[in-house]
Amino acid sequence: MSLGDALSIAMAGLRANQASMSLVSSNVANAETPGYVRKTVNQVTTLSGPSGSGVQINGVNRELDAYLQAQLRTETSGASYASLRSDFLQQLQGLFGDPNSNGTLEDAFNGLTAAAQALATSPDSTSARIGVLNAAQVVSGVLNSMSNGIQTLRTGAETGLTDSVNTANNLLQRIASINNNIRTNPAGGTSTDAATASLLDQRDAAINQLAQLMDIRVVTDGSNQVTVFTGSGMQLVGMQAAQLSFDAQGTVTPSTTWNPNTSASELGSVRIVYPDGSTADLTNSLKSGKMAAYVELRDNSLVKAQTQLDQFAAAMASALSDKTTAGTPATSGAQTGFDLNLTDMKAGNTVNISYTDITTGAQRTVSVMRVDDPAALPLPQTATLNPNDYVVGIDFSGASGSVTAQLNAALNARNLQFTGTSPNITVLNNPGFSTVNSASVTTTVTSLTGGSAEVPLFTDAGSPYTGAIGANGTQMTGLAQRISVNPGLITDPSRLVVYSTTPQTAAGDTTRPDFITKQLASSKYLYSATTGIGSNAAPYKGTLESFLQQFVSQQGSNAQAASQLADGQSVVLNTLQQKYSTHSGVNMDEEMAHLLSLQNAYSANARVMSTVNQMYQTLMQAL
To answer: Which residues contact 23 (CB under 8 A, 6 or more apart)?
Structure first.
């Protein structure tokens, strides 16, 4: 090997040492920079002369474990989902409060039952009557406040989706821009130049931020270009970025719901808009990340919490105001049945018929519900809470023909026949095929002095609560936000005792106070499976207090479970981040050790050059 070859090799070594020292310097400087990946030089041996080997820098390597990175992004989405959902459910639990604590719905309801018991003991006491009304106002006020709080949380979820979509769009644009600026290494291989390596760090940081918002899948090709897909397989970004859109709605109320049909939806939908103008709905396909958590909370968890409050308010109002009147036995030739008076029926009220199918011996129940909105027909079999009845909706508006004709059309096949003209009708059996065992009419009492113990203590913003069903939903939806104490009772508290003016109820009569106490404290009712307690086939049955305790306990359990899941996801994420940092992050001890090694190598290469220089000088002197 000639002196020229030796000098050339030493100079190549110095250049390689300088490049490596430059990367060490960069690694140390960016040790705390989020998303920075440790860099090393990609060195290859080159032939230098007949017996020497030099060194050449082919590019910069990023010390990255792609598999670990993919796992980290998956867990980042899961942790973001769990953390956000836990935060919201903790706030929701704050609205429901802890069992047996003061200021909660349970505390307010217990105050109402205690006030009713005090009134039953002293019905002629003005203070006892006012005490019931004050306690009822506390209950309605707590229900109003809790309902408003839930809708505020739903509004927060809607706003959060708006912000998340805006952030996601900025990230997608950034990823597409970096994709277009990345160059393929002309020297070949997987390494890059320093500038491109820096762009890859920036792109990975943007993708990691996107993973916090939604579940994604990333595909990298051989030229370091990436394509990002949603978890369901829809492309988000490649060389071009799709645009996410979210049509946020205005005020969120208990009745506003999301619908995959955009024209029918009352809440915003997350949609993806491609450069060619085509669109796709992502709302229901989001499974992880903050956006999925916002959707789940807005359309599921918080809706169920509202339904629980609405069901409690509806059950409490109906327990006090609903009156069931048995039919009068009737005959018509060989047929037997019952005369029914439908005068006081309101939308949502029912006719209840029990009969025996003689052919099978089976006992059957039919619930005929008054409907004033023909667009709501036919009613679903879940329109009532009884899992064993057959539900028929009858249009009382007159648009669908007479009530009797509608009843015969709906129930003749079940061997029940109807005669008369509404409001006075008769239900009869089909001899040899059925026997009508009983029939009654359940109505909502609206008069304070109608002659019965039932009392409309609570109203729907001043109107009777009857459980009406219309094309736009049920009256129960949002009742907790609207429930109020009957203004007629506030004007005249004596009506809590006086239920008849002809004849006049005695001031010390306990009939109505006893009824109120019984309905609030000990009577049992069925509750809708939409509350998340019980099922359609086996709905929960219990007192108002037991149902209240059930859903308060459920909310507490949900919040605790969400917190535990968030903690578990956090542990998994932190473990992966530590592994990722160990492999791809900057270790200062390793960098300092490497720096010393480079320093020695640099000195050695410089020594070679110095020696070659001396040899040249000796040679020149000899000449």
So the answer is: 39, 40, 41, 60, 194
